[in-house]
Amino acid sequence: MGHCIILVTCPTESDAVKLASDLVTNKLAACAQIHPVKSIYTWKKKVHHDPEFRLIIKTKGALYKEAETFICNQHGYEVPQIVRVPIEDGLKSYLDWIDESTT
Question: CA nearest 67: which of 22, 18, 10, 16?
């Protein structure tokens, strides 16, 4: 199954920090980076312009479903953004570190 990146957005920086910390502590992710973003989207027939915080989560592909369930259980959004992006290739020592850092 290789490795993957999971993209998630959170409404506040503190929500993003907590989710990232919990994923890493529970060994569902090796690393999570947090970036502020401006999101423009349609929700319930209205266009919104909101600040959010994007998590870029690095993990094993085999842990994706478990991580997805964990994120859903922790997340405050009715429909959170959870998108899996496969890592097709990367520095072997970095990918080995992901393996060593996750369950």
Answer: 22
pLDDT tens-digit readout, 24-56: 999 999 999 999 999 999 999 999 999 999 999
pTM for the whole thing?
A: 0.95
**What percent of the chain is predicted at pLDDT more than 90?**
98
Cβ neighbour number for residue 34 with a 10 Å cutoff: 16
CA distance 93 to 30: 13
**d(C-alpha 57, C-alpha 34), whole Å:** 9
CB 53 within 8 A of CB 37: yes
Sequence letter at residue 19: L
DSSP label at residue 103: -
